[in-house]
Request: fold
Amino acid sequence: MGKSQLMSICIISTGDELLRGAISDTNAAWMAARLNDRGYVVERITIVGDDLSKIADTLAESFGIYDYIVVSGGLGPTDDDLTAQAAALATGRPIRRNALAAQQIESAFKRIGRPMVEVNLKQADLPDSCSILQNQHGTAPGFSLDTPKGQAFFLPGVPRELKHMFETYVLAGLPSKTASTHRETFRCFGRGESDVQAELKPIAADHPTVRWSFRASFPELSVMITAPNAPEREAVSRKIRSALGPIIFSTKDISLPAAFGERLAAKNLTVGTGESCTGGLIGHAITETAGSSAYFRGSVVAYHNDVKTGLLNVSAQTLARAGAVSEAVVREMAIGVQRALNADVGIAVSGVAGPGGGTPEKPVGLVHFAVAHPAGIDHKQRIFSGFDRSRVKHISAWTAIYLAYRAISEGFNKC
Reply:
């Protein structure tokens, strides 16, 4: 949907465990997403095993092609940690004991209260004349090197360490982009990536100088535009809002539960959840946001019918007549949790998550939702067919939050 000339970026991940499939390369995916959010494009992601010559060859090739390279893994103290040696080999630099890196390693061990053995100083044996990147969450320093086309960053593979160093050194070290001031991201929920892209295709055709990026992170979707100037961005933004309407829940880099929390806080409202098939996922999602204690009252995981009747005051007659997965029951659950937790908004969900338990009348994937609020109560029914149990639970939690978000946003009109 339109391209613009950007700097070239490559991500290289090292480790036999990645090639064996023992672990997934979540680091590369996370870094690519962060770069994409900033308006950059990753042109290549490569995985290389723990082989000195193969890592060195991959680095040497990449140094001559890409402006910026990010390498993760292989900076530890064991014999299969080969990245620093490979970088030295690829650049023709000698390996030397880096005094600053050694000092940082020693300080890290003192900080965590563990004795340091001599082998740990192998992490300070780095290519000559490299720049040290401090690791505040681990013992392995990172480093950076100038390349014929730009710069290469070498980070540890431990996700917590990598993420902090990536934000601190890589994103901060990338040159600012003129186009980034004319970028906007739309966070969406409720429609698939292909449907949204098809809806926006005519807009893209009318604005060929605008670059589009779609990123699906189940069950949310982000649409980012980068325009050459402010008037173009504003024109496209208006058209996107008109086309997508209420499925846009934010233009900030936050999740749906976080956006819901912001809306609750802004309106000085509290919420409680009564959950059956989601098993507490709604409450978990809401409380992932720091400060959620200001608006989240609590959850009742009413999986068994006795809990529905005993804690949420669902009528036994309603359960017998309509069944646990029904509009009548979730309505009573929502009112019950609203009263039990003294919350302004009560969210309730009950469904058939599968893989068994479905019937022709109530198939696997059928979920009922109710939102009780100061103006009344809203109900929705969805059938999430083709999803496994985990995904039914996940999308049900987000759907419940979205319906409550809509109810609050629209002044408690029918969501």
Observations:
- The CA atoms of residues 280 and 384 lie 19 Å apart.
